[in-house]
Every structure is written in C-alpha cells, then in structure tokens.
Amino acid sequence: MAKKKLSHYDDAGRARMVDVSAKRKTVREAEASALVLMSPKVLRALPSNPKGDPLEVARTAGILAAKRTSELIPMCHQVPLAHVEIALDLSEKGIRIAATVSTTAVTGVEMEALVAASVAALTVYDMTKALDKGIEIQDVYLVEKTGGKSGDYRRRKKFR
Questions:
Q1: Running DSSP on this structure, what letter comes out for residue 48?
Q2: DSSP letter string over 114-153?
Q3: Alpha-carbon span 70 to 49, nearest angstrom
Q4: What is the distance between the alpha carbons of residues 142 and 31, in angstroms, rounded to a whole number?
Q5: With 60 as the cut, is the pLDDT of residue 160 above it?
Q6: So which residues are the catalytic ones?
C-alpha cells in the first residue's frame, strides 16, 4: 500500500500552503464540539457572573474566532464565511459547545469550526476562572463536515 502524502508539505519536505486555485466552489459545512467541565457551584453562579453573561460572551468570541482562523493557523486559507452558529448547552457537568460554520468556497471550514469551539470554550473559562481555576476544557473534535472532494464525514465514536 502506498504511503499517503501530506498535502501541506512539498516534495522536499518543506511546509506549504496547498494550491486550491483549480478547485471549484461548493457548499461546505462543518460542526465541531467542545466540553467545558465545571462544578455545580460554578454552573449555579453563571447567571450572576460579575463579568457578564459567560455564554453570550463565549458565543460572540466563537463567531469572531471562526472569522480569524486563517490568521491563527498558518496553512489555512481565508474562507468567506456564510454563517457561523455557536450553541452552548448547559448540563449537570458543564457546558457543551457546538460550533457550526458554512461557506460556498473551494476549501472546507473544519478548522474554522474547531477554532470557534475552542475559543468559545476558552472564553467560558476566562469568564468563570475567578470561581474555580480547576475548570477543564475537554473533547474538542470535529463532529461532521459536508461538501468538497473528500466527501462527507460524520464522527462515529470517541477515541477513549
């Protein structure tokens, strides 16, 4: 079986940005997830947080992060985003974040969704760390993606 070549390296092993100029635009969407684990005490304190509403600040931060992904991840292309949605759902263990990003472009938005979920989670931490430094960010992963040459992907199982 032939070894699969990594697209972000040239034949000499140097890092490169992939040339996507010959690809055609298609509708693409990606969803990523993150989990912020926190104590029941911190969860109960969310509505009265003196810094403001952590969930709304995190939602805004996630949207902004998706739009700036190419500035953070060196080989990412600038992608015109059509839509970014950040859903934050409370559970007894913490906050589950789902970031959904869509575009019509020549390359996908998986990294934009992952960056959005990650930054939203980091923002929740920043907004609540005064209550507990032991808050954990876990399970940042791609849930699904649609469109593009490689086709659709849907996460089936956890690695653990």
A1: G
A2: HHHHHHHHHHHHHHHTTT-TT-EEEEEEEEEEE-STT--E
A3: 32
A4: 6
A5: no
A6: 126
